[in-house]
Amino acid sequence: MVFIINKIYFYDTNALLELQNKIFDHEFIISSISLQELENIKVSRSKDDQVKYNARKILHLLDEKSDKYKVIIYDLLIETYISDKNMEITPDTKIVGTCSYIQDKISEEVIFVTNDIACKMIASKIFNLNVESVGENPDDKYSGCLEVTLSDEDMAYFYEHLQDNIYNLFENEYLILKNSENRIVDTLVWRDGTYQNIKFPNIKSDYFGIVKPLNGDVYQQMALNSFSNNQVTMIKGAAGTGKSYLAIGYMMWLLEKHKIDRIIIFCNTIATANSAKLGYYPGTKDEKLLDSSIGNMLSAKLGGLFGLERMINQELIQLLPLSDIRGFDTNGMRAGVYITEAQNMDISLMKLALQRIGEDSICIVDGDYNTQVDLSQYAGNNNGMRRMSEVFRGQDFYGEIELKNIYRSRIAAVAEEM
Predict the structure, then answer these.
(1) Any idea what the CATH number is for the domain that residue 44 is in?
(2) Which residue from 63, 279, 289, 335 has the fewest beta carbons nearer than 10 Å?
(3) Are residues 122 and 216 in the same domain?
(4) 137 lies in a domain?
(5) CATH number of the domain to which 309 belongs
(6) In Å, how far are 26, 170, 180 from 216, measured between CA atoms?
(7) Helices (H), ranges, 269-354
(8) 345: closest CA among 237, 266, 229, 257?
(9) DSSP structure class, residue 47
């Protein structure tokens, strides 16, 4: 058997379960043994619901994108190859042995990807394969902003070369310049082939009041700049950093200036992690949403439940649970779409939500996928907000910023350290 593949990864079963849609970033190989294991997992009585859900989901993806990978059928030739290594025939050795067998047949290097300790040892020590692991909680350092400290000489050189992307930033990525005393001297953005000083709107809302960066917060300045320059912005940060304050304040301002005709809020109302669930909520869809966390947040920002209900009745604000968005289309609505608590979405949900956004609408996505994910099925590599960041970075209509400073209270700031 001879295969010609540009970039070769060989995924173990547990890597498939963990990585989900990310495996399709490049061509790859799997063993037919992994497919058998996934089929068994999805109906197993000994596996928890989350693992079975992941098995069903990855099988669906593999079926949907069958042209993106190759399956190596485990046969007698491979079994003989494993036996010649004096290895017992087990599910682990079948998968690792298949990878090694393929490595011997092609010139490219095959990378075996697994989180299973036994498989790692067998692959690296017995079959001499190059092995990589998959982290359950990947540490994504991208914040939408790079901070650099420069000497006077380096600072002068930078300003003489503003059209050179010296720091290799993405389109619409921000840059904070600090002097040798670690003081911020400038904030810029790489946009349209040059470093530009950032500007942000002066927001005076009749309903919301003055919306401005708290204490001159440079990260909030960048968020407002992204809102006013990009069709889509992701705003990240811990509780109390001002995500919803800025997002709702900006959209209310646009609504009052007739730049948008309505605010549509996509929400996935689930119970906070490790909390007791209260059960069935009576009432209409809007009444149920107003009794949930999204209702609490909006009421606090918009001056109480009465004002929020009035705006809903006037069709200025629309609350739309993610369970109802399939088939929804904002084209022609001139809407401001606010996807809140977006850390509680998996990749398929986030993809579905973003596909609702029309050309005449804007979108702000907020959340904190590092610390505030409330269900395990939304965590790690399956997190939709994380995946959106990876895919959208560099698009000319997209900006992203992570807020760093907590303003809610001293208590909230200290609690963040827990």
Answers:
(1) 3.40.50.1010
(2) 279
(3) no
(4) no
(5) 3.40.50.300
(6) 43, 25, 21
(7) 285-290, 293-301, 305-313, 347-354
(8) 266
(9) S
